[in-house]
Amino acid sequence: MSESIDYAEMLEIPVSTLNVVKKKGRKKREEDLKERVVREVNERMEGEQRPAAETDAAFAEAPESERIAVSEDVTDYTSGQPEKPQKKFFDSGVLIAEFAMVCALVALILLTNIFMPNSAINTFFAGLTATEETVYEDDRVYSELTLGSVVSDDIACTVTDGVLTFTGECSVYAPYGGTVESVAETDGVYTVEIEHTTSFSSVISGLSAVYWAAGDSVFSTIPVGYSDGASEVSVRMYDGGSLISSYSVNEENDIVWNV
Prior knowledge:
Shape: rod-shaped
Strand content: 15-25%
């Protein structure tokens, strides 16, 4: 082949000129620990890492509010993990057993309260809630007390061998405050026994009416009964069961001790 033909053929072949400029490469920056963790986690979650060009294109095309830097840790580490179920109260067999025992105890107490009010368990719980009342005993002797009159009006009273008697229509009072021990009635006439202290008591007989019952508290200023004057009324006072005779009445019918 001649040089002229070769040159002619070369002229007919289209030729493109390409200028290649080689730049010095920069040393690749080492990945820090955070970026490496982000990359590895994203690879596991997404299955594969998108090419850098694709990532850059998606970053450029995405709205500004949705753009996320590669180095930002946006991985939701909890989304792929199953939610831990919360235990309910009755999931534990021990709690169920304790709850059943409490219910059984409450039912037992209610049933015994209804059908066995005097049972041992009711007595036990009543002892826990009952308030203990303090009882004070009056142990004074009769000579330490100041007595008044047993009649309301100016009626003559006499004392013979320790028995005070009078006859007339009037209200009748206890010689001292105390508690009614008993009330007895015979042929329409009443007898009242009154305890004043642990050792001192009195008995009033011949009353037409009695205003109090056994167990009631009486006072020396409030009548215990009434006499219509049809029968004699007598008052006897005792010290430990022995009749007291060492007393008299003054002009106001007040009882006065002679000791």
